[in-house]
């Protein structure tokens, strides 16, 4: 498990050590540093794989990533299972052991919406993984559904599911988002593509929510099959109605409770409230952390760590922290 990360001179962080738990929630205003935490973890993953190029596609060079107020060079540090490791970015010269870093399942905010087809991978290392945009999700489902079928843990099986299989539980969790919907899929190896259907209709003729949530649900379920996995999801709430967001929060918590480390970046008060409800009902407070991000007057990130007790109550409530509903509602009274 990743216990903490430390960022020095990285983007809006001059220096910050951040603890991580089984379930960690990153939230705050736009462009306040949340995504930078995720990016630092992805860079560290590349470092542990001893890749020569640690830069992330589309994020520029070291000059683009270095804090404008920092004199020091970029250093990223991480604590894994109580042991500390650090890299000098971007030209890390330290040999790290790849197996020490958890397997990362990252679903980005830019994941595919409704698509006529979804690409699949033939790369041996990633062919059964779900890509950050949701690519390969249907091939992953096929692998764990028919090629190497698995039974999910009883804890994460949906109460309405008729079996412990991956496909049955994906279908049942999808019905929480859109009641009575029927999901199916096909993988076409000859064209390196796949497609999903909902009630027999192509994805482009169905609402955005189902396509956006499919890789999220699948990742959370699949990541519980093996040990030493970390799931990173950006904006899990995208295109979901409030009930769907609340139910998704429960799935996130169940995945985490089974031992998979989960890190989510969210703006949703429904996700946050759903997690608080789960904590109250399951005494899960000691495994959950919330980090609130905001920029100070120097455009550097300040982080407030917020704790939830076993009654689902929050120890402090910073201004701007999921309070917009109350602010708006007060104007209507």
Tell me what the structure shows:
By secondary structure, the protein is an alpha/beta fold. It folds into two domains: 1-102 and 228-333, P-loop containing nucleotide triphosphate hydrolases (Rossmann fold, 3-Layer(aba) Sandwich), CATH 3.40.50; 111-227, no CATH class. It has eight helices and 14 strands. It has helices at 34-48, 62-65, 137-147, 166-177, 208-222, 242-257, 269-282, 324-330; strands spanning 2-10, 13-19, 23-28, 75-80, 83-88, 103-107, 118-119, 183-188, 193-198, 201-202, 229-234, 261-265, 288-295, 301-306. Strands 6-11-12-3-13-14 form a six-stranded mixed sheet, with helices on both faces. A four-stranded antiparallel sheet has the order 2-1-4-5, covered by helices on one side. Strand 8 (183-188) and strand 9 (193-198) form a beta hairpin. Helix 4 (166-177) runs antiparallel to helix 5 (208-222) and helix 6 (242-257) crosses helix 7 (269-282). The longest helix has 16 residues, at 242-257. The radius of gyration is 20 Å and the shape is globular. It starts with a strand and ends with a helix. The model has no long low-confidence stretch (mean pLDDT 92).
């Amino acid at each position: 498990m990743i216990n903490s990360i430390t960022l020095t001179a990285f983007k809006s962080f001059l220096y910050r050590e951040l603890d991580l738990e089984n379930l960690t929630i990153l939230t705050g205003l736009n462009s306040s540093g949340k995504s930078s935490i995720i990016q630092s973890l992805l860079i560290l993953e590349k470092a542990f794989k001893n890749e020569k190029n640690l830069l992330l596609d589309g994020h520029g060079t070291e000059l683009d990533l270095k804090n404008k107020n920092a004199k020091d060079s970029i250093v990223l540090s991480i604590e894994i299972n109580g042991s500390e490791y650090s890299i000098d970015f971007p030209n890390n010269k330290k040999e790290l052991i790849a197996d020490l870093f958890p397997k990362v399942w990252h679903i980005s905010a830019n994941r595919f919406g409704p698509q006529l087809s979804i690409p699949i991978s033939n790369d041996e290392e990633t062919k059964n993984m779900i890509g950050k945009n949701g690519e390969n999700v249907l091939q992953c489902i096929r692998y764990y559904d028919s090629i190497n079928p698995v039974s999910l843990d009883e804890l994460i099986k949906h109460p309405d599911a008729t079996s412990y299989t991956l496909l049955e539980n994906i279908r049942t969790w999808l019905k929480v988002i859109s009641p009575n919907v029927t999901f199916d899929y096909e993988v076409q190896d000859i064209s390196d593509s796949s497609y999903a259907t909902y009630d027999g209709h192509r994805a482009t003729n169905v609402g955005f929510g189902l396509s956006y949530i499919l890789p999220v649900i699948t990742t959370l379920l699949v990541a519980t099959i093996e040990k030493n996995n970390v799931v990173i999801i950006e904006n899990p709430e995208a295109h979901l109605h409030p009930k769907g967001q609340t139910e998704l929060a429960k799935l996130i918590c169940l995945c985490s409770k089974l031992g998979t480390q989960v890190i989510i970046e969210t703006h949703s008060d429904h996700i946050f409230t759903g997690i608080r409800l789960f904590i109250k009902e399951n005494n899960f407070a000691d495994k959950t952390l919330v980090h609130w991000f905001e920029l100070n007057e120097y455009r550097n990130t300040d982080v407030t760590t917020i704790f939830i007790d076993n009654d689902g109550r929050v120890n402090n409530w910073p201004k701007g922290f999921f309070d917009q509903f109350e602010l708006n509602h007060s104007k209507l009274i």
